[in-house]
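[audit] Reproducing an earlier prediction to check determinism. Same input, same settings, fresh worker. If the tokens differ from the archived copy the diff job will pick it up downstream; this log only records the rerun itself.
[audit] input (203 residues):
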Amino acid sequence: MTLPRYDITGEIGEGDATGAAVGRFCDENPGPLEVVINSFGGIASEGAAIFAALERHGRATAIVQGVAASAASLAMLGARQVLIADSALVMLHEPGAVAFGTSGDMRAMADTLEKMTGVYAAIYSRATGNPIPWVEGWMRDETWLTASEAVALHFADGILSAERAAPVVAAAFDYRKFKAAPPELVALALKNGWAAEPSKPLK
């Protein structure tokens, strides 16, 4: 039997990759369903909203193809089961933001980001069973997990069978913007023209 399928691709918070859109799909399909994820992340609060929608539904299987980074790794953990392709990657890090204003505005933004980090670390911890201090350390270091590492650390429940794991390229993004992206993702971004200035590394 083919289950209803929802694709989360590109940037979390844009297009169909929002908590509201995923929530509507879940409401329309109360039975078992699949959510296929290939996303570099996006707005952290939208990742949390997708997490909540999937958790509330309670019968979703998340399938990670390519990459589930940043907000996408938070979103996927709301599913009842997470399966990952053996070539896929999962990444978690601290939320970030761009701010403009006075020194007081900057301090307020830093306080907000620290609170968000604590909230999201608690979600990762509850979903995976890993202690919060471990999760906070992984987030601080920007940790990239292979499929086998994701399973070992309970971010995924299993690796997709060869028949189901379609050869999928990671979502298009300039992966140089992450501080610890795997070299193969940076090379992929340069090769495919996803990096605006290939010869100029980010500072």
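[audit] rerun output stored. Observation attached for the diff report: Residues 35 and 116 are 25 Å apart (CA to CA).
[audit] end
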